[in-house]
TrEMBL record:
Range of residues in the leader sequence: 1-20
Record-annotated Glycosyl hydrolases family 38 C-terminal domain positions: 811-875
Source species, domain of life: Bacteria
PANTHER family cross-referenced by the UniProt entry: ALPHA-MANNOSIDASE 2C1 (PTHR46017), MANNOSYLGLYCERATE HYDROLASE (PTHR46017:SF2)
UniProt-listed SUPFAM superfamilies: Galactose mutarotase-like (SSF74650), Glycoside hydrolase/deacetylase (SSF88713)
Tagged with keyword Magnesium: no
Lineage summary: Bacteria, Pseudomonadati, Bacteroidota, Sphingobacteriia, Sphingobacteriales
Domain Glycosyl hydrolase family 38 C-terminal: 503-637
One Gene Ontology biological process: mannose metabolic process
Annotated protein name in UniProt: Glycosyl hydrolases family 38 C-terminal domain-containing protein
Length: 885
């Protein structure tokens, strides 16, 4: 966020505030760390920021290093920088500058910490986060240095508790979080052990007043060591030599009698840990109070979630293909690395320029907004948002065509002649699901699974062919061929009654509300329970558009802003609003059509815009044969850009009294009542898998979206900041889009896109079976390749990697980025500690596995592979990585 005072000036201002506090300080040693806050954008277009880092900024930092060389070693200038910008500097700096930078790294004047940059961790996924540590690891290894044991996040107020799990399992010992000075902070101690869902504990220093810390400790600081982080403002670079010396002298002045040395965050950890500090343990997730900003780019967010899976599924598929006897014709690891980097950059916390900077238009609404936009006054700021979206577009261009080609090559390689469809399962357990192939080729009435001999029915509608693919091996494939044989099928349970507006299958019976185009009743036929709360203020499967009032945006700003009101209100409130009242709108009087085929029954609701809601949109509700889920698809056509604060939701009010909620968040399933740290976001958050809504008997309903991670419980949560909110009603709201941020996220949402949602019943709740497994199967659909012609030489079916425990994920299987060989990474998500047997494909050449941490460092004794399998004990929610030897 924009500050009207430089980082160094802020540091010196804080100095005067703490001077009176430090006379009786017990501190014997102060480690001074210098850093600048890195935004990929915000102060300028991101390309310009990247250029400046590799040119003027690093040259200025080298100058400060050179001028300090005559000082004692512990007084020489040392500059801490994140992994990714240092990677950019090394790759883009001029040759002579690059050599100087490399030498400064080896000499310890440039210090690279473990994380790539400040991220909104909640927007990411498990494997992209792991890969994001690779930039710093590679730089350290190239310089012959140990891997960094320190890490830093700045600006973003709160983070997913995946951080202590991930960093600890990567060998990192210390994390510093510096909060934006205007934003509310989680209620945590200054220094504490942060315990992750796997019970890993990470020493964490949370400073709520600014990016860095104060130059001297507060009065109640109980330790002999203090960390003074002098962090200059957004992209402002390293201090000059004169500023550097002034800052160090200021620290000495404020800590009389203490030894003051310039160093790293790791130096602070290594010193204070010798004191055996008595620290409070905080076990809890801290939902991000900024995370709603990602849903200002709903299409890109949807694609990012797909790419977070498909990118690493591609590498696993390529690795397996080599074992099966067909090496890829393309450099798959290089494509994966570039896609992973783009995903990381999308998860980086900066989006674009801010309206408050005055560099592109100003806040206007209605006709005035349309006029300014037509004249091009917003072109500069809109391009900055486009830069952010291009990271996702770039990954799509890399990954999606390669996945398509690889699947076609697999289909061509199998020893089956003629038309054939190959179905690949990217998950490490056998599964069944429906697949879709688009082809104009002629097919007979059924398909045969070559491996099992099963005959399955097909539905062919012009160029769209669908069928149920059963018994697809874990991370393996099966081949299907056209046949004239009749499929043996039981009587269909699919039906609809247009007059009564009803449809059903074996598992569910749905009755629609014709007036509102929503679900009036949804019966879970297995439990005979009604899912829908008919008395709710919201309808089930209802699209809701909110237009907020100035009273609401102002209340949010007053609740959330903790300091700097004069500038922070412009970036966290919404200026120039008039007194137009709050409005909540939904479509009505939909056109309803039903259809049925051998695999599904569908109701389509089409809504035309009117004076109350100007959007044209549709809702599609589908039940499938032999599939215990309800599919809901929302689709909007030509949404206009709207600068007025707004949000769109799909509501699901469930018929449960006194509900319990289970949220499948990043790294673990959590209880929002017990596991959220106060002061973080209790009103709105992201999920990674799914949601459970349970009654007192641990029975109820599950739901997820592969496209929409943002949701609120009980009531819609945009423009709300609550310190003690506890959801009471069994309502789940998925956030389709919003433009709440007035800072640097996209400020108006427009266009056409879709979002899917899935609902199922829960009989006996367990994290794995109720949430993780169904959600992962939805996020990782079966992959299909089609070809025709001569047969290849590869088997018609092959097994891949399997795990004995469903819900243990294989997040990576491919080339070791930290050394020789291949790596396989498991991640326990069932929330239970148990042994897990991992079975590798036939014909693999691996003899043993070497346990390692998330950065490839060996951690234990080799484990022999016997009969293509090895067994390990994995703790609940823990990652486990192995080098295959």
């Amino acid at each position: 966020m924009k500050r009207f005072i430089s980082g160094l000036a802020m540091f010196l201002l804080v100095s005067t505030c703490v001077l009176a506090q430090t006379n009786d300080s017990k501190v014997k040693e102060v480690i001074v760390v210098f850093k600048t806050h890195f935004d990929i954008g915000y102060t300028d277009w991101s390309d310009n920021v990247r250029y400046n880092y590799a040119n003027s900024m690093i040259i200025s930092a080298l100058s400060t290093v050179d001028k300090s060389k005559d000082l004692p070693k512990d007084q020489q200038f040392k500059w801490t920088i994140s992994g990714w910008p240092m990677k950019e500097i090394l790759s883009k700096a001029k040759p002579d500058v690059k050599l100087s930078v490399e030498q400064a790294i080896k000499d310890g004047n440039f210090l690279v910490h473990a994380l790539p940059f400040s991220m909104e961790t909640e927007s990411s996924d498990l494997e992209p986060l792991v890969q994001s540590m690779g930039y710093a690891s590679k730089i350290s290894r190239a310089a012959g240095l140990p891997l960094p044991i320190d890490a830093k996040e700045s600006d973003v107020p709160s983070h997913s508790w995946i951080l202590p799990t991930m960093l600890t399992n990567a060998g990192v010992k210390f994390l510093h979080i510096g909060c934006n000075p205007a934003s509310r902070s989680p209620e945590v101690p200054l220094l504490f052990w942060w315990e992750g869902p796997d019970k890993s504990k990470l020493m964490t220093f949370y400073y709520g007043e600014y990016y860095g810390t104060s130059p001297a400790p507060p009065k109640d600081w109980a330790h002999k060591t203090w960390l003074a982080i002098i962090q200059t403002n957004d992209n402002s670079g390293a201090p000059t030599y004169e500023e550097y010396r002034e800052a160090v002298k200021n620290v000495e002045k404020l800590n009389p009698g203490a030894k003051v040395r310039v160093g790293s965050m790791a130096d602070f950890y290594s010193t204070i840990i010798k004191e055996n500090p008595k620290l409070i343990t905080v076990k809890g997730d801290m939902p991000d109070t900024w995370i709603h900003g990602y849903m200002s780019m709903p299409r890109e967010m949807k694609s990012s979630r797909v790419l977070s899976k498909s990118t690493f599924n591609l590498e696993a598929f390529s690795t397996l293909s080599s074992i099966w006897g067909r090496k890829s014709e393309e450099p798959i690891p290089a494509f994966v690395d570039q896609s992973s980097e783009n995903i990381n950059l999308f998860d980086e916390h900066t989006w674009g320029l801010a309206m408050s900077h005055g560099e592109s238009g100003y806040w206007a609404y209605g006709k005035e907004f349309e006029k300014l936009r037509a004249k091009g006054y917003y072109d500069i700021i809109e391009y900055s948002w486009k830069e952010k979206g291009n990271y996702v577009t770039g990954s799509e261009k890399l990954i999606l065509p390669v996945v398509s080609r690889e699947l076609k090559r697999l289909a061509a390689a199998v020893n089956v002649e003629g038309n054939r469809i190959v179905v690949y399962n990217p998950l490490p357990w056998e599964r069944n699901d429906m697949v879709t192939v688009q082809t104009a080729a002629a097919f007979k009435k059924s398909l045969k699974n070559v491996a099992t001999g099963e005959i399955v029915s097909i539905v062919k509608d012009k160029n769209i062919l669908q069928f149920q693919a059963n018994h697809i091996p874990a991370m393996g494939y099966s081949t299907f061929v056209s046949t004239g044989e009749e499929a043996v099928t039981s009587k269909s349970n699919l039906s609809f009654d247009a007059e009564k507006a009803m449809m059903e299958n074996e598992f569910f019976k749905i009755t629609f509300d014709k007036k509102n185009g929503t679900i009036q009743s949804l019966i879970d036929k297995k439990s005979n329970k009604e899912m829908v709360n008919a008395n709710s203020d919201y309808k089930f499967g209802q699209y809701v558009n909110e237009r907020f009032a100035k009273t609401q945006t102002d209340k949010y700003a007053k609740d959330y802003i903790k300091a700097g009101w004069n500038w922070a209100y412009q970036e966290l409130g919404r200026i120039n609003l008039d007194d137009t009242p709050y409005k909540k709108s939904s479509g009505r009087n939909a056109e309803i059509t039903f259809s049925k085929d051998a695999l599904s029954v569908t109701a389509i609701m089409t809504f035309k815009g009117d004076a109350d809601l100007v959007h044209n949109y549709s809702m599609v509700f589908t039940l499938y044969e032999n599939k215990p889920t309800v599919e809901v698809i929302w689709s909007i056509n030509g949404k206009p850009a709207e600068a007025w604060p707004e949000a769109g939701w799909i509501s699901f009010p469930f018929n449960i009294e006194h509900p319990q909620f289970k949220l499948g968040r990043l790294g673990a399933v959590v209880d929002p009542v017990k596991d959220f740290v106060k002061g973080s976001n209790l009103d709105y958050g992201f999920i990674n898998t799914g949601v459970g809504v349970l009654d007192k008997n641990n029975q109820g309903f599950g739901l997820t979206s592969p496209d929409v991670p943002g949701l609120s419980l009980d009531r819609p949560g945009c423009w709300k900041y609550s310190t003690d909110f506890v959801p009471q009603k069994a309502n789940v709201f998925f956030n389709l889009y919003n433009n709440q941020w007035s800072t640097n996220f996209t400020e108006w949402v427009e266009g056409s896109w879709t979002a899917k949602f899935y609902i199922w019943g829960i009989n006996n709740y367990a994290d794995g079976s109720a949430i993780v497994v169904p959600s992962e199967e939805i996020r990782n659909p079966l992959m299909v390749g089609y070809t025709e012609g001569a047969a290849g030489k590869q088997g018609a079916t092959s097994k891949g990697v399997s795990v004995s425990e469903k819900g243990v994920l294989v997040t990576f299987f491919g080339k070791n980025r930290d050394g020789e060989g291949d790596v396989i990474r498991l991640w326990e998500q069932n929330g239970k500690t148990s042994p897990c047997k991992v079975t590798l494909p036939d014909d693999n050449k691996y003899k043993s596995v070497q346990p390692c941490n998330l950065r490839g460092e060996k951690t234990g004794e080799e484990i022999s592979i016997k009969n293509n399998a090895f067994e390990v004990k994995i703790k609940a929610n823990q990652p486990a990585s192995f080098i295959l030897i």
